[in-house]
Design brief:
67% helix; single chain; mainly alpha
Length: 198
Amino acid sequence: MNHLAHALLADAGGDEFALGSALGDFTHGHPDPAWPAARQAGLRFHRAIDRYTDTHPEVVAARNLFAPPMRRYAGIVLDVWFDHLLVREWRRFDADEPLARFAPRWLALLDAHATDLPVSLCRFHAWMRSHGLPIAYGDTGVLDVVFHAMAHRLSRPSPIADALPALLAHASSLQHHFDAFFPELLAHARALRENPRA
């Protein structure tokens, strides 16, 4: 999953847990033993969510909609597309807090811990703010900018810069897969938070 989905899934675990989850794409290896226990748990939670997502039948089916060479990168572009769908349907999944309040609160959490964050996350955090993310994930024009930036960051050529037309071509099927997958992901995340060793 992409950044907004991870933030939503981790939020109920508290600030340190959510911070650990935010570090998931920017930290390698085991959690730092000097971190608070909740932050370490949040990092492990992020990775468990990624494992669950990558093997879920609906996500596998969604990846298989794409022809080569895009299929090789379908997991990456679907993460972003699912954040796009989450923004558009936020009230369906979090009726308690509007996205306009949730997103700034999550960004403020990263701001408050800026000195603890890896440089790569600090740079991405600044990039998110400059492009109005994560709320702007709902704008397909901004998604196109995101995909071009992702393609530029990769060390070898990829078709990711052309992801938006491919996603739009499969929009109806992707919506169907998302609708089937995301409620199950929410339930799985809740179970993981309540019983992290399950």
